[in-house]
Structure formats: C-alpha cells, structure tokens
C-alpha cells in the first residue's frame, strides 16, 4: 500500500511539527478573500520536511475535536489580550468576523463602534440581558397580551414573549443548524442574538447543541478547513487548496479515520478527474441513467454459446462454464487479446468523419462513445463492490482456516492489503474513464491510455488471483504472487496519477468541455 | 407544539372575521389549521392581471409562524396562475419572504397576501421565471425544500 503509507507519513510528519505554525503556514493570513494573488505552484511543489511532494499529493493536516477547540481558544485569548475585552465578547467578535483575526483587529482599530455594533455587541448592551414583564405588552408573534407575560428584547427594542423566543430559537438551532448568526425575529431586523442572550433564552436541552454549533462555525467559516464527511467522524482537515486551484489539481486528502475524500468537493477520492469534470460526469450519468441502465446488470450472455453468465467477483476475465470461452466482461472481446499491445479495451476508437455524416449517425456515435466510457466507469464501481464482498467472504474462511491450521494472523495480512489495493485502484480506474470521456486527443493521451491499460491489466490479474479458493490462497507461492501483484498495482496507480496530475498542473490536458471559472463547486459544508 | 400554530391561526382567523381583510383579498376557506385558501386580485389597472382573480393555498406546519407557511397559487377553471418572473407555471412562488432566511414570524396570512398583491401590482414583465418549463417538468420537491436563488427581489 504505497499510497496510503505515503499519505500516512505525510500526516504524521506534519503532526510532529503541529504546534509550530510558522513556516508551512496554510492557515495563515491570506485565507480571507485575497484570491487574486498569483500562486503559480499551487502549493504542490512545496517541500514538506525534506521530501519532494508528488504532483498528485497535497499538503493537509487532520485535526481532532480537541485541536479545533484549542485553535479557537488560542485566537480568543489573543483577541482578549490585544483588545482588552472579555473572552466571551472576543468569541462573539471572532465569530462575527468569521474567525479572521486580522480583519477583526483592523476593523476594530478603525471603527470600534461599528465593529461592536455589527457583532451585536454595542456598548449599550453591556448590562446583562434580562426578561421583563411590561404592562400592556402584546407579542407580535403569538398575539398574546395576557398580564404578566414574560418578554425579551434585544437592543433594537423588538420585544417578543419568552415562549415565542424559545420556539424561534429552537427552530433555528435544531432545524436550521444556526447558532452564531441568528437574527432578531422582527421583520428586516439584522441584529444578531448574542451568546449571553441565547444562554438566557435557550432551554437547557438546546444549550449543548447550540454550543456545538458555535464550535462548528470555526471550521465552516474557514476556506482552509473542512469536516471529514465520513459518518460519525468528528475530525476536520486543513488544506490550502482554494477553489480557483481546482482546475489544476485534484486535492485528495485522507482523514485519520481512513476516509479518503476530495478537499475541493467533499466527494470520495476522484483522482485523476478534476472536480468540475466529476460534477459534469455525475450529472450526465444521472440524466442518462435510463439509457445506461442495462450496463450495470449482473448477468450477460456468453458471446460464443449464449448461455447466461453471472458475475460474482470483481474480475473481468470471464470463462464460460459451459463452453470454456474466455472473454472480457467489459468489451465482450477475446481475453487472450487483452495482454497484447495492439488491443485496446480501454480506448474508444473514434470513427472517421465519413462514418458520421448526418445528425442521426453523429448522435449515435456520441451515444456509443458515452456508453463506452460509462460502461467501464460503472464496471469498475461494481467490480470494486464485488471485490469487497469477496474479500469479506474470504476473510471469514481465512479465520476458519487459521483456527484449523494454526497460522498466525499476520500471515494473511497480505490479503487485506491486496483487497485495499484493489479498492483504491478501481476507484482510480473508475475516474480515469470519466476523465477520458472529457479528454480531447493530443500527443499526451496515448501515454495516459497506456497507463490506464497497464493499471487495468494489473488490477484484473490481481482480482483474478483473489477468486482462487481459500486452500490455494494459503499456498505460499500464491501468497508471494499476490504480494508482488499488490505492490505492482499500487505502483501502476502512482505512475498514472503522477502523469495525469503533472499535466493537469501544467495545463497540458485539453478537455472537450469548458471549465467555468471561477468554479462554484459547492456551498459551505454544513452538517447538522 | 401543535398548539402553537393552532393558537396563532385561531387569533388570525378571528381577526379576519371581525375586521375583514384589505380590499382585493378574500378568505375562501379556513376549515382547519393546516390548509387555508384565499383569493387575491390587483387593485390597479395593470393589464397583465386585469379582471382576474387568483387562488392562493396556504399550508401551515405545526411550527407556524416560526416556520413560514407554504404558499402556492392554485389553478382552477376560473383561477389562472398569474404571469410573473417569480411565479412558475405550476403555481410555485419564488419569494424570499417565504423562505427560511427571509421569513419573519411577525408576518401573517394577511401580510403575505398583501406582499403577493403588491408583487403583482409592481410587475410589468409578461414572462415566467427562466427555466420554467424544465423546473415544472422536473421538480418533485416541496416549495420549502427548493433552494431558490433570490437574484432580483426588485422584480
Ligand atoms: Zn409570543
Ligand atoms: Zn430587532
Ligand atoms: Zn474522518
Ligand atoms: Zn473534488
Ligand atoms: Zn459459453
Ligand atoms: Zn475488454
């Protein structure tokens, strides 16, 4: 598992120097809207420690909940010291300025009153917030006017009964996941409800959630931080890649929970395809799902004897039980031809112009072309799943075998390494087909297709070894073969990613679609 | 919680019944506290809406008025869907005050009707929102789950 080792070592080498932010500072001063600075190397070529980073690799750090809390505390302490205001007020100001300390200090120095006002902290509110009973008061939300009704107003004077305030805050906090920027309920009033007032009004059951949401704003407000999207993972990842960089790099990051995802769009790792192509591709697949549905079927007919063949592992090398015909599941072509240099299972042969003169023929060719790539994309997705299922079954049998034969656990670790490699490589292969769909031919595409083919062949042959019965898998010769194939697969994957990422960063790929620029990838990542 | 919306709607209803609604707005039915129907028409001579009456459907959640009501135009034989750059031909309205961000709980059925009335009165463009056909064909979401982009609230 070369790749994962590399990711892990990147993380750990940075973990060692974690408290020291000074040199490789990606959380630094320029993360707030200064997007027009030239940034030619996109942070890709920077050195981390002494290692030269690979072109497909980005620098990132994993933060656990206590790290995130600590970073906030540090900033709050700094503002508290510099401005000589309470920590509570420092926190409110920082949240208001989206945790941009420099901007906060600048604004505070220049227009103190305005900054306080905007954050809902103006001097007149220094008296602690309190509930009041006002004679003759009628609440504009529930229209109640009974005597002795407890009410509350922010400094804007818009007064509502406590019950309505609680309903309102409950809705905002529980349903809408808001905390730091909840406004006065009055129409068109922009006054923010500050933390002290919230503490007074919010019911005990919501306090914890409210404070959790307040903590979240720290991550959500920073362009350099994103939550790990894995379910139940509380970590955040820091990465300096900005939206405008996403046409030049695919920033895959790996959380310590082992989830690998794209920092640009939060989807699962989709190297080598850039975020925008991924978005286009997924949309196209969703739009055309009916046309392409037949492909994901688990059964096909043998091209020779027409008997029905079911796929139960990920391997695409099929042998018909009945007639022993060997063929490729993807292209239905002869398997024996797949190892040879002239055979291209992965490349779509563009028909010459004369073939596609009229519109109908053109649209047929364009559909065929799409299906060619979709077929292979969907197939790797499906095969990855089948490989995984097969591994789960094999693992069970292996445990059984260990008990019976007394083999130690470490001796079968190579199988889980092989399974991991299959998953990662198929994930990459899958996206090479989406990538290829949008790729216009130039002198570099042949190299790409060769790399794709080499990786594919390596993966299929590893996948095939995987389908062997458990008794054979335990054989030491096969074990060596599997270990060799595993590291070969990982190596081929690195070669492919290296080539695609380098050309992407140098702008050498020509795509047959326009990249919209600037790239609106996705809204702020908010989790409830 | 259900009591919250019911109490407020009860008060709105008794106010409507005693004070009556502003000109051009009429209550058609309010048989329960989940769904009300109202008719509105413009009061000036805007040729786009001349001599037409439009039917509005209000749906209230148990969180009303903390949560906005779902308000749509309903098409009937004598009640067309008004033409407007923010009203889709299936009756869905793209108006920020009906979204979670723009809504304020001090709003009520009457004030929403008045806003829609003035939204029609102020309009001179004889057109549907961009992408109306596609939206009407493809949309399966409830209005409150649609993320409208309130590009131009002056229309
Ligand atoms: Zn009230
Ligand atoms: Zn107010
Ligand atoms: Zn994670
Ligand atoms: Zn992405
Ligand atoms: Zn056969
Ligand atoms: Zn093939």
From TrEMBL, chain A:
Residues 1-40 have a biased composition (Acidic residues). It catalyses: [E2 ubiquitin-conjugating enzyme]-S-ubiquitinyl-L-cysteine + [acceptor protein]-L-lysine = [E2 ubiquitin-conjugating enzyme]-L-cysteine + [acceptor protein]-N(6)-ubiquitinyl-L-lysine. PROSITE patterns: TRIAD (PS51873), ZF_RING_1 (PS00518), ZF_RING_2 (PS50089). One of its GO terms (biological process) is protein ubiquitination. Residues 1-49 are annotated as: Disordered. GO terms for molecular function: ubiquitin protein ligase activity; zinc ion binding. Keywords: Metal-binding, Repeat, Transferase, Ubl conjugation pathway, Zinc, Zinc-finger. It is an enzyme of class 2 (transferase). InterPro entries: Ariadne, ARIH1-like_UBL, E3_UB_ligase_RBR, IBR_dom, TRIAD_supradom, Znf_C3HC4_RING-type, Znf_RING, Znf_RING/FYVE/PHD. Residues 135-349, 139-185 form the RING-type domain. Its EC number is 2.3.2.31. This is RBR-type E3 ubiquitin transferase. It comes from Podospora anserina (strain S / ATCC MYA-4624 / DSM 980 / FGSC 10383).
Automatic annotation (TrEMBL), chain B:
Keywords: Ubl conjugation pathway. Residues 4-155 form the UBC core domain. PANTHER family: UBIQUITIN-CONJUGATING ENZYME E2. This is UBC core domain-containing protein. It comes from Podospora bellae-mahoneyi.
């Amino acid at each position: 598992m070369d790749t994962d080792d590399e990711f892990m070592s990147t993380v750990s080498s940075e973990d060692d120097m974690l408290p020291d932010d000074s040199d490789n500072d990606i959380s630094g001063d320029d993360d707030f809207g200064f997007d027009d600075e030239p940034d030619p190397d996109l942070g890709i070529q920077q050195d981390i420690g002494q290692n030269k980073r690979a072109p497909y690799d980005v620098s990132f750090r994993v933060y656990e909940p206590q790290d995130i809390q600590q970073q906030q505390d540090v900033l709050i302490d700094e503002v508290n010291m510099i401005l000589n205001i309470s920590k509570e007020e420092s926190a409110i100001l920082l949240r208001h300025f989206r945790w941009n300390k420099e901007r906060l200090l600048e604004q505070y120095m220049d227009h103190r009153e305005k900054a306080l006002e905007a954050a809902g902290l103006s001097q007149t509110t220094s008296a602690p917030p309190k509930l009041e009973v006002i004679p003759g008061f009628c609440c504009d939300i529930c229209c109640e006017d009974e005597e002795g009704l407890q009410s509350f107003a922010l400094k804007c004077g818009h007064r509502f009964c406590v019950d309505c305030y609680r309903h309102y805050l409950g809705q905002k906090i529980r349903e809408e996941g808001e905390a730091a920027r909840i406004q006065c309920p009055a129409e068109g009033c922009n006054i923010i409800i500050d933390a002290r007032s919230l503490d007074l009004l919010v019911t005990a059951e919501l306090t914890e959630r409210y404070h959790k949401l307040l903590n979240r704003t720290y991550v959500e407000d920073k362009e350099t931080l994103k939550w790990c999207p894995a379910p139940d993972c509380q970590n955040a990842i820091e990465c300096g890649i900005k939206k405008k960089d996403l046409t030049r790099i695919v920033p895959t990051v790996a959380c310590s929970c082992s989830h690998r995802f794209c920092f640009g769009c939060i989807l699962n790792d989709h190297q080598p395809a850039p975020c925008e192509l991924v978005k286009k591709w997924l949309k196209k697949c969703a739009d055309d799902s009916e046309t392409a549905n037949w492909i994901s079927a688990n059964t096909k007919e043998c091209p020779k004897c027409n008997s029905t063949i079911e796929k139960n592992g990920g391997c695409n090398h099929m042998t018909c039980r009945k007639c022993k015909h060997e063929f490729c599941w993807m292209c239905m072509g002869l398997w024996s031809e797949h190892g040879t240099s002239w055979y291209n299972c992965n490349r779509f042969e563009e028909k010459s112009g004369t073939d596609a003169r009229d519109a109908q023929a053109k649209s047929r060719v364009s559909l065929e072309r799409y299906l060619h790539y979709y077929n292979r994309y969907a197939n790797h997705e499906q095969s990855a799943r089948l490989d995984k299922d097969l591994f789960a079954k094999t693992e069970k049998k292996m445990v059984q075998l260990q008990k019976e034969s007394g083999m130690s656990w470490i001796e079968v670790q190579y199988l889980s390494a092989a399974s991991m490699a299959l998953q990662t490589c198929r994930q990459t292969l899958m996206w090479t087909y989406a990538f290829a769909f949008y790729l216009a031919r130039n002198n570099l595409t042949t190299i790409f297709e060769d790399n794709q083919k080499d990786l594919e062949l390596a993966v299929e042959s590893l996948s095939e070894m995987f389908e062997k019965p458990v008794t054979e898998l335990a054989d030491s010769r096969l074990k060596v073969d599997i270990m060799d194939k595993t590291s070969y697969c990982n190596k081929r994957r690195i070669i492919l990613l290296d080539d695609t990422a380098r050309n992407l960063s140098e702008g050498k790929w020509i795509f047959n679609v326009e990249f919209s620029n600037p790239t609106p990838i996705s809204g702020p990542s908010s989790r409830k | 919680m259900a009591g919250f919306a019911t109490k407020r709607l009860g008060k709105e209803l008794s106010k409507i019944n005693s004070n009556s609604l502003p000109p051009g707005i009429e209550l058609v039915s309010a048989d329960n506290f989940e769904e009300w129907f109202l008719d509105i028409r413009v009061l000036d001579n805007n040729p786009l809406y001349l001599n037409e009456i439009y039917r509005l459907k209000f749906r209230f959640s148990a969180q009303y008025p903390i949560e906005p009501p779902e308000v749509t135009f309903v098409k009937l034989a004598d009640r067309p869907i008004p033409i407007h750059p923010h009203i889709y031909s299936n009756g869905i309205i793209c108006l920020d005050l009906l979204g979670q961000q723009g809504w304020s709980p001090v709003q009520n059925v009457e004030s929403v009707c008045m806003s829609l009335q003035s939204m029609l009165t102020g309009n001179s463009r004889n057109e549907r929102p961009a992408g109306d056909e596609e939206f009407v064909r493809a949309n399966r979401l409830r209005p409150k789950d649609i993320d409208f982009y309130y590009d131009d609230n002056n229309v």
